[in-house]
Amino acid sequence: MTLRIDISGLPAERLRFAASPLAELTAMLHVLAEPGHHPQLAGWAGEVWAGLRPELAERLREAEFLWRSSQADFLIPARPRPTLAEELDDVDRIDDETYVRAALVTTCGSNRVHFGTPSPLTDAAARERALDVAQARGALQEAFAERLLADPAAVRARVRHTLEQCAEAFFDAAWTDVAVRLATDLRIKNDLLKRQGIGAALASVSGAVTLAPDGDCIIVDKLQDKATAAHGTGVTFIPSVFGRPHLVAVHAPGWQPVVQYPVGEPSPSEPVSLETVTLRLEALAHPVRLRLLRTLARGPHTTGELAHAWELSPPEVSRHLAVLRRAGLLTARRHGRYVRYTLNLPDLTALGADLLAAVLR
Question: Can you give the pTM of this predicted structure?
Answer without folding.
Answer: 0.76
